[in-house]
Design goal:
CATH class of one domain: Alpha Beta
Helix content: 25-40%
Bound molecules: pyridoxal-5'-phosphate
Radius of gyration: 30 Å
Shape: globular
CATH architecture of one domain: Alpha-Beta Barrel
Structural class: alpha/beta
Strand content: 5-15%
Mean pLDDT: 92
Number of helices: 23
CATH topology of one domain: TIM Barrel
Low-confidence stretches: 1-6
Largest sheet: 10 strands, mixed
CATH superfamily of one domain: Alanine racemase
Number of strands: 23
Length: 662
Amino acid sequence: MSVSTIAAPASWTAADGAALYGIDRWGEPYFSVNDRGHVMVQPRAERGGSLDLVELVRELQGRDLSLPLLIRFDDILEDRLERLHAAFDRAIAQYGYDGRYQGVFPVKCNQQRHVVDQLVESGRRWHFGLEAGSKAELLIALSLLDDPEALLICNGTKDQRYIETAILARQLGRQPVVVIEQADEVERIITASRELGAAPLIGIRAKLSIRSTGRWSSSVGERAKFGLSVPDLLATVEALRQANLLGELRLLHFHVGSQINDIAVLKDALQEAGQIYVELTRLGAPMGYMDVGGGLGIDYDGSRTASAASTNYSLQNYANDVVATVQECCLPHGVAVPTLVSESGRALASHFSVLVFDVLGSDALPQAVPPALGNEALIIRNLRETYRQITAIPLETLAGSELAASGDEPSPLERLQEAWNDAIKFKDDALAAFRLGYLSLPERGLAEQLTWASCQAIAERLAQLPPGLNVPEELQQLPAVLASTYYANLSVFRSAPDTWAIDQLFPVLPIQRLHEAPQRLGSFADLTCDSDGKIARFIDRGQHKPLLELHPLRAGEPYWIGLFLGGAYQEVMGNLHNLFGSTNAVHIRLPEGGRYTVDHVVRGDTNAEVLEAMEHDPPRLLERLRVASEAAIGRGSLKISDARRLMAHLETSLRQTTYLQG
Ligand SMILES: *Cc1c(COP(=O)(O)O)cnc(C)c1O
């Protein structure tokens, strides 16, 4: 627990807030904190312009867009695309690579129409393409990608119709590359080509023998689900040759798995794939493209380590390694270097969307000290005295307190330890006395309140002690014991499923009050009736922690939490657990030197829509309830005015989103 590193509340500034939540590490260059303690967004990065996220949410609420709200900053998406291309351009220039880079976006990462549209539009100047992994994604890619020079990589398991569609798309003027992922696909390609009298561009996915680390390590290696082993690869080349299709074999593909944490894994994969590429040209395939797949990682915690939520390389390191390694493989063999293709999804789409949700309340333990009544029981008086002794130690003096006690005086730490022992003993006494009937229920309540107040006062003081003190284990646990649950207007299963399914870490933090020292530790519980519906793992520089520093809620004042870097996969993988549907979403643009514009509003699912998704019929549901309320009116158990109110609530609920209305 890093409580002892929190600055003293009095001197806390917005910079401390930025440091605590790591915004200055993972947020660069898009997110920062202003003097008012609000998260700021710089959608255009270094090109200038910024938005106060709190103000933005307030104004969006004014437009009747209630929380939880997914805010997509299309400028960030465009900026990521530019950075990716700039990195490859730099690497190509630096190594004198005699080829170019031409990437594609894997549609599975975020299939939302506005997102794919935006990527195609922004990517036009580089002929940036799309990657499809299923028939439905192929339909998206075919209809949205109209640039004849952009690549359309067709991955996934393919039936005859998928393959024929790709072949016909080539005649439509597109550039589909059908990637053979499984040994039996080659026969289907040959049949389809024969029938149509035309062939697609063909790619081949190699199953690399390297061992990856991390969560997606099973995406590679001999037992991987996709890709051809060396014997299959050779047989496929022969089959294509026999069918007179070897002249269409243009691309070698591999994919190491998502979020490569360690660059060494990528280097090994590149070397192996590079050699296979050279061999394929020797076997007579024209080739021309090397597709290094996805896997370019995101530094979720800003620690720059090979840990699960981070990467030990930058975007530039990645591009350099791809360019240099492929070149090293080709040059000695006199093979022309290929056009480099990557399928980076996570790296492009993570930053641009921010999920903002509100906190509905918290279960904080009672903190206030109740006023003393006359003739209180001895146990209560003892607890009051303990509390008084703790609070008699002034907070300000602790930071400079010496390790050792001076003279005969006990050190502040020793005094806190002693007070803790007393508080626990008196609390146990109170419980025993209650069981024996010597203490009333209100008195027992009082004892508990005083104990918690004492614990809180001890924890506050411990947090001020200088680092390096040998704090006893039980006192170190105190902040966790005092932790609060913050109730979030959110479904984790809908909006951040990876936090539940694969323990993915995202930066999560309040978007306001960052100039105020957070005095609580807590975690989030969502709206679902599922005990897994929580966020209780937070980034911690290469590690993770179970509790997040948070602020006490203030009556009548919203407390908004942002979940950052969740633009990839979360929406797609989200589900309807407890029938919580999609949230409202907006697309924001920040024109140069101007005010932001709301480009698209995508309303979240209504209750009627999620019911229909489960084959229910909302008008029928209403009608049955109307009949039931008529019967109740007839029996005299429901007033007509109340029946009307009930029906109005039901009708309104059907039209509204599935989340709680503020
Ligand atoms: C999922 C996937 C990708 C995208 O991976 P990211 O880690 O998001 O970049 C690319 N290619 C293939 C074949 C995939 O299955």
